[in-house]
Amino acid sequence: MTDKTENLETLMKLSLGGDQRAYAVLLQETARLLRPFLARRLNVSSEVDDLLQEILISIHKARHTYDGERPYKPWAYAIAKFRLQDHLRAHYADRLRHAIELSEVENDLLEPVTKSDISYESISGEIQKLPPKQAAILHMMHQEGYTAKEVAEKIGMKESAVKVAAHRAYKILRKILER
Amino acid sequence: MGNIEELVESLARDAAPVKPVPHPLMLSLGWVAGAAIYLVVTLWLSGLRPDLMQKLHEPWFIAEAASLALIFIATSLSAAVLAFPDLHQMRKAALAPAGLFALFMAILFFAWRADVPPAPLPMHSFECTANIALFSLLPAAWTFFSMRKFASTHYRWAGSVALLSAFSVGALWMLLHELNDSIIHAIQWHYLPMLGIGLIGWWLGKSLLKW
Predict the structure, then answer these.
(1) ipTM for the complex shown
(2) How far apart are CA A109 and CA B147, in angstroms?
(3) Do B85 and A56 touch (CB under 8 A)?
């Protein structure tokens, strides 16, 4: 594309007139522009894709607020930032909702989490029903014999996060086994 | 990436011709004109204060009315700008009410200093706030209804400013209608409630303007 800045405004003007081809090119260019912007702010690539889709839908819904007379990029970035903030707010609110008190896991943090009275094999059926990440952590710790620190290094999590995930898994398993 | 391409194709297929919304200046002009007509009609029905001609010779009264009218115009423009995702790239216009509110407070301060001996307080009190709020309902509803068709990325601010705009035209109506010389009464029951109105607008913005 030559002189993209000018082209984006022209493409949007054409799109507002109902030119579907121009609109498809505009959205592709917008996605190309926004992908690195989102990738710098989000760690997981699937999140980038999901959010990018949401932003494109928002641009589609709000296109009547653009008249083609002012620069296109600030308009598109304003919508992208708005959706990114929404996403991050929801993400952190969700993490906060699922957070557990440190005092709750204090005892487990002191204990060696790789030791357990029940063998892995005897409850492997229940373990497979756990969320995939928790099941994988238990598998590595109890089947393959890794420590929480080693698991953390292997799957790119913090050691404390691995212990918390293991603690949650133990809690679920305890409930199942107590039935 | 494949999903993005599919989405782009599907959105492009939906791309019917769209008429862009009016420029914020035209939008706010519409709101100001509508509210001005509403103000004139309401004053015609409710009546002007009997001593209005005499009050129009008092500089602090004129300053109060003029700054209130300017606040109304500036908040209308600000609300219109805030309705656009990128503030129509007119950030300064969105912030315009801040300076006018500062000017208004200064005018009220000097009017209070000039009120010697203090004018007697009227018998009523909160009724004024309630009447202004009732008067403001229609312009507020109209503004919010219009703004919902836009795509505000500052919906809390937009709601707050829109409600302040409607309340300021209500305060202007009260100033021109009520027989009251007490600046203390005006500050307490006409203007201080604007703080609460701003907060209600903040909340309403989140409820009504989020998209």
Answers:
(1) 0.86
(2) 53
(3) no
